Amino acid sequence: MAQPPLSDDGHHVVIDGRRWRATDPAIPEERRAELVRILMSWRREVRATKGTEGEAAARRGVQAAKVALGERGSPPWWEQTDEQRRDRWQADLAEPAG
User: Fold this and answer.
1) Would you say residue 65 lies in a domain?
2) Which residues is 6 bridged to in the sheet?
3) Where is this region: Disordered (predicted)?
């Protein structure tokens, strides 16, 4: 799958003319793949729990995975120290029970 183009500063991907925060490029590939797998599990959980009490927890899981990847959260990854960035992506992340 082709990667979407990055903005000139490398901080955002551009999809259909819209800018989205890019994944932190300093995340080691193995950990990035693990975080993406967890994110996709939570997204499936959101779909499976739509309209139920479990949906809120699933959405929190998506948020946590996106923050770990650097795609959300404040400050953005490019304003964090190397230690803050490492702590963010190394933090334990819960996975859906199902």
Assistant:
1) yes
2) 13
3) 71-98
